[in-house]
Design a protein that fits this description.
Chain lengths: 257, 334
């Protein structure tokens, strides 16, 4: 059971002076499903990259199971922490299967070929995201939503303990939004840590157990989703007037012009 | 669940089979190249000469003249193709190639300067090597800003530097005394007739391929982009540095051995990717073999088409490579 502990963490957000009162001290625990909410440019992506040790923080530290992530070798880290990026880089042409199979990279030694089990895991991930028919297609021939699903499948094949996901519902139609969020919720139920950035507050209200609200002009707050997702907290977050209703016991927010 | 067993088995075979075929073709092309020339020899005559039997004339012809040249040609092709494949992964750009990046331009300028100054043989090779290394450092140094190198900036810097070398080459040719021009032109177009020390190229090619084998999977990840590679556990900075160093070394040795043989580094990796997919564990060794084949056969043609006159091998690689590449591009999956 992994946990990711942030101590006085200040992510290095480009073009913004660090503000000590914004430091984060919290734990992402196994079984929890965290949503990071905040307006554009507040640093959600930067925070996720910092948690994956792809970016050094301005100050503070991140520990995975009591070990600072900056001291773990990259490969060890990649066996335990996986991240899905918001922008999918256009690398060299590759098929969907090849790109998903690369998720197994951290688990294999340099001389090892992918085993039957690795291939089976890749196919299971493809099946889970309805990409079986796309396995042999070039990645760059896919639509935005299909690429998003392929990226999620790669993360599923990587099977890390900590899932960092930047905007999981981007480009996805309503059905696949539910598929994607269902997959993440399942990971959390199985005892993994799931941390995602979200631009849709209703997706967070529907699926997340915990939320972290990053404000543009005041210190962040975090905790239980049900108690934090209120009009009073969210209106200053987006600097937008909201109306709220309830659906099946969960809050539903609509912007009011 | 899908039946995955045949898939993973076939993937192992599908990696080995092309390499076995290419290795066989390599051997065949080398033997064929040795039999061809101003005097055609039979396979058995070549075999006897290699074993130290048969006429002294045949032995001299095979062991001292043709074998070194064929070996040099093969190694040059292998070096160039692997260098090209590495550069393309490093820059994630299909256009990258030692020649496009100006590395061979630097070597050419240095070699032509050596010819103009009347320096020949080993010293000229040394100059070409230094030229290649300097050009590499120049391109890399100029394109690095604040410790980071964007692929596009590296590519553009290389292209511009290559153009600069091109202008210098033209200038040197314009100013050169007429009797030196044929030698300079031959060097520019690639020429294996002076390649007397093929073992240096082999000494670089074989260990490099060994080093690259366990790196193949990391390179596959790097081909998806540096951020993704870092997230999957690759030490991107050190890997990129190593790849660039190796690619530069391979190019420098190739240019030193055979002069400026264009096109191999650009075309061979792409041809193979179109046919075999883009797994670097397969593409890198396959590039070494296929590049070797191409230059070996091209040089055989160069020696025999208008024998006893010889053509520069670079002309043949381009004349063979251009139509083949365009054909594959038309129907390929790039």
């Amino acid at each position: 059971m992994s946990q990711l502990v942030l101590t006085q963490l200040l992510a290095a957000i480009p073009n913004k002076p660090p503000q000590p009162e914004n430091a984060l001290s919290l734990s992402f625990r196994a079984g929890q499903m965290w949503g990071i909410l905040g307006p554009n440019g507040v640093g959600k992506t930067t925070l996720l990259h910092t948690l994956a040790a792809l970016k050094s923080p301005t100050s503070g530290r991140v520990e995975l199971n009591r070990q600072p992530i900056t001291q773990l070798p990259r490969l060890t880290l990649a066996q335990q922490i996986g991240i899905m990026f918001q922008e999918h880089q256009d690398g060299f042409p590759a098929t969907v299967l090849e790109s998903v199979l690369l998720g197994r990279f951290p688990h294999l030694s340099p001389w090892e070929m992918e085993s039957e089990q690795d291939v089976a895991l890749a196919y299971a991930a493809l099946a889970r995201l309805d990409l079986m028919d796309f396995a042999q297609r070039p990645l760059n021939h896919l639509s935005g939503g299909e690429r998003q699903r392929a990226a999620l499948a790669a993360l599923m094949a990587q099977a890390p303990d900590v899932w960092l996901v930047d905007e999981p519902t981007n480009h996805l139609d309503l059905h696949y939004q539910v598929v994607a969020m269902g997959l993440l919720a399942e990971q959390a139920r199985q005892g993994r840590v799931v941390v995602m950035s979200l631009h849709d507050v209703n997706v967070a209200a529907q699926w997340c157990s915990h939320v972290l609200l990053l404000y543009p002009d005041r210190p962040p707050i975090w905790g239980d989703a049900a108690s934090l997702l209120t009009q009073d907290n969210l209106e200053p977050l987006y600097r937008q007037k909201l109306a709220m209703t309830r659906l099946n016991g969960k809050p539903l927010f609509v912007p009011v012009a | 669940m899908l039946d995955v067993k045949p898939m993973s088995l076939s993937s192992r075979y599908s990696m080995l089979l092309p390499l076995v075929i290419l290795a066989f073709m390599s051997l065949l092309s080398m033997v064929f190249a040795i039999t061809q020339g101003s005097v055609s020899l039979s396979f058995s005559a070549v075999w006897q000469a290699l074993l130290g039997q048969g006429s002294t004339l045949n032995q001299t012809l095979v062991v001292e003249l043709r074998l070194p040249r064929v070996m040099a040609g093969f190694a040059t092709g292998g070096l160039l193709a692997v260098a090209g494949a590495l550069m393309q992964i490093l820059l994630r750009n299909p256009l990258a190639d030692p020649y496009v990046l100006g590395i061979s331009g630097g070597a050419s300028v240095a070699a032509l300067a050596a010819i103009l100054l009347g320096i020949g043989g080993v010293f000229m090779s040394g100059m070409a090597f230094i030229g290649a290394v300097l050009s590499t450092l120049l391109v890399f140094g100029l394109s690095t800003r604040l410790g980071s190198t964007a692929p596009m900036r590296l590519l553009l810097t290389g292209v511009v530097i290559a153009a600069g070398w091109g202008a210098l080459i033209t200038l040197m040719l314009a100013l050169a005394p007429p009797h030196k021009i044929p030698g300079m032109l031959y060097w520019l177009m690639g020429d294996l007739s002076y390649a007397s020390t093929p073992w240096i190229a082999w000494l670089v090619l074989i260990p490099t391929c060994m080093v690259l084998m366990p790196l193949g999977r990391s390179l596959n990840v790097l081909a998806r982009g540096p951020l993704q590679a870092a997230a999957l556990g690759v030490n991107v900075k050190s890997l990129e540095r190593l790849v660039f160093l190796l690619a530069s070394l391979l190019t420098a040795i190739a240019v030193t051995t055979a002069g400026s043989v264009g096109f191999v580094g650009l075309v061979i990796p792409h041809m193979l990717r179109m046919v075999l997919g883009n797994d670097q564990r397969l593409i890198l060794p396959a590039s070494a073999l296929a590049g070797g084949c191409l230059v070996t056969l091209a040089d055989t043609l160069a020696r025999t088409v208008i024998a006893p006159e010889q053509l520069p091998v670079g002309v043949i690689t381009a004349l063979l490579g251009v139509p083949t590449f365009l054909y594959l591009l038309q129907r390929g999956r790039l």
